[in-house]
Amino acid sequence: MMGKYYYPQGGLPPQTHLTTERAIVTEAYTVIPKGVMTDIVTSTLPGFSNTRSWILARPISGFATTFSQLIVEIGPGGGAPKAEFEAGVEGVVFVTKGKVNLTLDGELHQLEEGGYAYLAAGATWGLENVSDDIVSFQWIRKAYERLEGYEAKSFVTSDAEVEPTAMPDTNGAWKTTRFTDSSDLAHDMQVNIVTFQPGGVIPFPETHVMEHGLYVLEGKAMYLLNNDWVEVEAGDFMWLRAFCPQACYAGGPGQFRYLLYKDMNRQIRLT
Fold first, then answer.
1. Using CA atoms, how far apart are residues 91 and 102, in angstroms rounded to an integer?
2. In DSSP terms, which residues pair with 147 in a beta bridge?
3. What is the Cα gyration radius of the chain?
């Protein structure tokens, strides 16, 4: 795929294409491979013009419970003067292709490939494609869980502007680009970029309360999902329920990178 980050181009396979694919849906995890993201599974979005989307995750029984995630493609001249209509919803936009103008609370920002925007609940924002090519981006949405004394604020940055943090004792083979401080209680979610160099591993099955959405931006790897080792590549999406064991082995030849959603920093609600 041209460019640093993978984005789908749609289309439709020929009639001679085998129906066998890598899509997997289980109670513990789901894999949506890039090959199923065709024209016929796209959705239009209210308020947007010249736009289509692939909805990767939504809160339903047996699937995502805390978030939704979309791939959005805006054609030349398209967009939305107001993108978020649901009160109390925060979001993250990460651009994988092209350039888009983001108007955030009256201020104009131009997001290029690798551009990242955290859009706080209650913010007024919209997007416009003023280029002659498509724009493609990941859009993650979550109902913001307010905590007394804390309030998350919108900000704009990029992959290139944030220095990745190496995980302990990995010699840089496993790094995480954190766009917010994980100890900042104002934020009830993180959307990070995880990078493995060839040979990098998660050397144990992580089993934790955070739900995950993983979109593979670059490369390929073997990923442990519950009891199954699944080969994934750029353009694939994975959903992992809370406590689903996970691990990773990046065999190369290039680096393996994915955009990672997780919910965090809140007490478990029981009533």
1. 13
2. 150
3. 18
Q: Decide: 216 and 193 in contact? Cβ < 8 Å.
A: no
Say if residues 117 and 104 touch (Cβ distance below 8 Å).
yes
> Hey, which bits of 112-173 come out as E strands?
115-119, 125-128, 135-143, 155-158, 165-166
Helix (H) or strand (E) holding 94: strand 89-97
Q: Mark out the alpha helices in the chain (DSSP H runs).
A: none
Cβ atoms of residues 219 and 172 within 8 Å: no
Residue 2 pLDDT greater than 60, yes or no: no
Return the structure tokens found at 97.
Answer: 């292709």
- DSSP SS3 for 89: strand
Please report, as a single letter, which amino acid is at residue 100: V
Six-digit token string for 60: 């339903």
Q: Do residues 190 and 180 touch, judged by C-beta distance below 8 A?
A: yes
pLDDT digits (tens, 9 = 90+) for 201-227: 999 999 999 999 999 999 999 999 999
